Amino acid sequence: MPGEEEAEKTKQQIGARVDHELLTEVRILGLRQRRRFNELIEEALKDLLKKYATSKKKA
After folding, report:
1. Is 31 within 8 Å of 24 (Cβ atoms)?
2. Which tens digit of pLDDT belongs to each residue from 43-54?
3. Which of 2, 22, 40, 52 is in the most buried spot, having the most CB atoms within 10 Å?
C-alpha cells in the first residue's frame, strides 16, 4: 500500500500481558474482518483515548 512503509517508520513496538481469552477473541475478529492484529489494537487504543477525552469534557 502507498504510504504504508512511511507509517511503519513512525510505529513503536510494545509488549503487554493480556487475558488469554481476550487475545483469542481479538485474533478471531481480525481473521473474520481480514485485518491485522495491530490495526485492531490501534483502533481500540484510539477509541479508549476518545472515550476519556469526551468524559473529561463533560466533567
Report:
1. no
2. 999 999 999 997
3. 40
List for the chain the helix, strand, coil content (%; round to 5).
70, 0, 30
List phi, psi (to 5°) of 9: -65, -30
CA 36 from centroid of its chain's CA atoms = 9
45 phi/psi in degrees, rounded to 5:
-65, -40
- pLDDT tops 70 at residue 3: no
Q: At what angle do helices 37-58 and 20-33 cross, to 10 degrees?
A: 110
pTM: 0.73
